[in-house]
Design brief:
This protein is α/β, with parallel strands linked by helices. It has a single domain, classed as Alpha-Beta Barrel (TIM Barrel). 43% of the residues lie in helices and 16% in strands. The chain contains twelve helices and eight strands. It has an eight-stranded parallel barrel with strand order 1-2-3-4-5-6-7-8, surrounded by eight helices. The longest helix has 19 residues. The structure holds glyceraldehyde-3-phosphate. The site of glyceraldehyde-3-phosphate (G3H) has 14 residues, from β8. Glyceraldehyde-3-phosphate binds next to β8. Keywords: Cytoplasm, Gluconeogenesis, Glycolysis, Isomerase.
């Protein structure tokens, strides 16, 4: 039996209208017994569709997550969503520190850490994202960057049940580019070593996802890389067949 159960998660980002619930329902229908026996599935829709997706996933093995949360449980923060609100809507997890948040909204490691703590407070799994830019990789800094982000963004006391880490090289997101399998393995090994050093046996239980241009065609080899416990998919998660094909790599 695998130490860590695989997870294929979909981040719909700022995509999807009410009509998209039908496409998500096809994901739910495709998550049949054999697939659910081998891999966890999760979809993180935009906040406007969260409740509809929770309803569509009711009784299935597909979990729903949020894409971001505020660090505080409530208050005067126009436009923000508390982790407690996501949990109340039926989410089981929330992505924090996605590079699009770090870049578009200037989120720092300290803010991401506070959001991850908020997720824990609300009973949600925090999916903490880390990843280097193209310039950082070309400068040979990829490992230092992701180690630094991990150290700064992951709260103390993290557990395998409460935390997932996603390695997403910024330059691979939505570009069709992916690192070599050796480069993915090197980063995941570094993340695994850092988690184990900090959290001991709990660190060993924390799942490490790879994200960045994962599609059905490359999923088999990427998901077979050592220390890759699943995928965080963007574009490919918007279409049921493409998303399910990635998950079926585990069959
Ligand atoms: O959160 C998901 C990632 O940013 C990956 O996006 P992508 O699969 O469209 O490259």
């Amino acid at each position: 039996m695998k130490l860590r159960r695989p997870l294929v998660a979909g981040n719909w980002k700022m995509n999807g209208l009410k009509a998209s619930v039908a496409e998500f329902t096809r994901i739910v229908e495709g998550c049949d017994g054999p697939l659910a026996a081998e891999v966890d599935l999760m979809v993180c829709p935009p906040a406007t569709l969260l409740s509809a997706f929770v309803a569509a996933a009711a009784g299935s093995d597909v979990a729903i997550g949020g894409q971001d949360c505020h660090a505080k449980p409530c208050g005067a923060h126009t436009g923000d969503i508390a982790a407690e609100m996501l949990a109340d809507a039926g989410a089981r997890a929330v992505i924090v520190g996605h590079s699009e948040r770090r870049c578009d909204h200037g989120e720092t490691d300290a803010q991401v850490r506070a959001k991850a703590e908020a997720a824990r407070r609300a009973g949600l799994v925090a999916i903490v994202c880390v990843g280097e830019t193209r310039a950082e990789r070309e400068a040979g800094q990829a490992l230092d960057i992701v180690r630094g982000q991990l150290a700064g963004s992951v709260p103390d006391g993290a557990t395998g049940a409460g935390l997932i880490v996603a390695y997403e090289p910024v330059w691979a997101i939505g570009t069709g580019l992916t690192p070599t399998n050796e480069d993915i393995a090197e980063v995941h090994a570094a993340l695994r070593a850092a988690l184990n050093a900090r959290f001991g046996s709990e660190g060993e239980a924390i799942r490490l996802l790879y994200g960045g241009s994962v599609k059905a065609e490359n999923a088999g080899e990427i998901l077979a890389v050592p220390d890759v416990d699943g995928a965080l998919c963007g574009g490919a998660s918007l279409k049921a067949e493409a998303f399910l094909a990635i998950a079926r790599s585990y069959l």
